[in-house]
């Protein structure tokens, strides 16, 4: 099935309801847009920011008694994402 939508002057699009249901998207859901080498755009549900932060903290062996430096956060984010 193919769907189309229009880009607003604010850069916004409405994802058709059947696609939102298929991907389990609700208001506030994170969405990842990834261009492919074939010139298409892959769209998938993203990870909630809270979940991503939990993974970063776990990877960095976060200790609540001290904060992380910006470098530690950046390294942990890159490694948690697998880049």
Quaternary state of the chains: single chain
| Distinct helical segment count | 3
Q: Strand arrangement, largest sheet? A: 1-2
Stretches where pLDDT is under 50 for at least 5 consecutive residues are none
Using only CA atoms, what is the Rg? 17 Å
Helix and strand composition category: alpha+beta
The chain-level mean pLDDT equals 80
> Helix share of residues?
25-40%
- CATH class call of the largest domain: Mainly Beta
How many beta-strand segments?
2
SSE string, helices as H and strands as E: HEEHH
CATH architecture of the largest domain: Ribbon
Envelope shape: elongated
Q: How big a fraction of the residues is strand?
A: 5-15%
Main sheet properties: 2 strands, antiparallel
Q: What is the rounded distance between the termini? A: 33 Å
């Amino acid at each position: 099935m193919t769907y189309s939508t229009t880009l607003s002057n604010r850069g916004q699009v409405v994802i058709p309801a059947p696609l939102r249901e298929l991907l389990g998207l609700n208001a506030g859901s994170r969405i990842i847009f990834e261009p492919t080498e074939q010139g298409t755009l892959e769209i998938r549900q993203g990870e909630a920011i809270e979940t991503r932060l939990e993974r970063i903290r776990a990877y960095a062996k976060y200790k609540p008694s001290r904060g992380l430096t910006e470098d530690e956060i950046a390294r942990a984010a890159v490694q948690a994402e697998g880049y």
